[in-house]
Amino acid sequence: MKSTTRRTNPRYYNYIGIALIIAIGAVLYAGHYYKTKRHQEYVYLQAKPIKSQYGWGYEIIADGQVYIHQEFIPALSGKKGFESRDQAIVVANKVIAKIRNKEVPPTLTIQELQELGVVKDSFAVK
């Protein structure tokens, strides 16, 4: 009796290899696409206090780059710096909250500065 064994065509292995390469490429592309798309939707924001010639100020850092450089209290006439590092950070965090809420531009009002305790009364504004 003759033994019959079925041999696999060498092309079959080529097709499996090509399909495997395509599948791996698709997975890698999908991962790269997801990471890129996610990076476009989210930006890492950081408040950093700075010492300026006017007192304290702050910088808003967006993905490692300076986005806002503020050396003095915004919304006040003249150039008066923050009295303390903590005041600068509180205001910078308020600006970050406005950026996250997509308020463009993220400006502050005198009333908001009063609520934050940066401006004591309305007479300090004049």
Structural features:
alpha+beta; three-stranded antiparallel sheet; 3 helices; 3 strands; 43% helix
In short:
With 126 residues, the chain is α+β, with helices and mostly antiparallel strands. It is built from three helices and three strands; from the N terminus they run αβββαα.
Order of adjacent strands in the largest pleated sheet? 1-2-3
The percent range for helix content is 40-55%
Secondary-structure element order, N to C: HEEEHH
Q: Span between N and C termini?
A: 111 Å
Give the radius of gyration: 29 Å
Low-confidence residue ranges: none
What does this structure look like?
With 126 residues, the chain is α+β, with helices and mostly antiparallel strands. The protein has 2 domains: 34 residues; 81 residues, no CATH class. It has 3 helices and 3 strands. It has a 3-stranded antiparallel β-sheet, with helices on one face. A hairpin with a 2-residue loop joins β1 and β2. The radius of gyration is 29 Å and the shape is rod-shaped. The N and C termini lie far apart (111 Å). The mean pLDDT is 85.
Layout of SSEs?
Layout: H1 10-41, E1 45-52, E2 55-62, E3 65-70, H2 85-100, H3 110-115
Antiparallel strand pairs: 1-2, 2-3
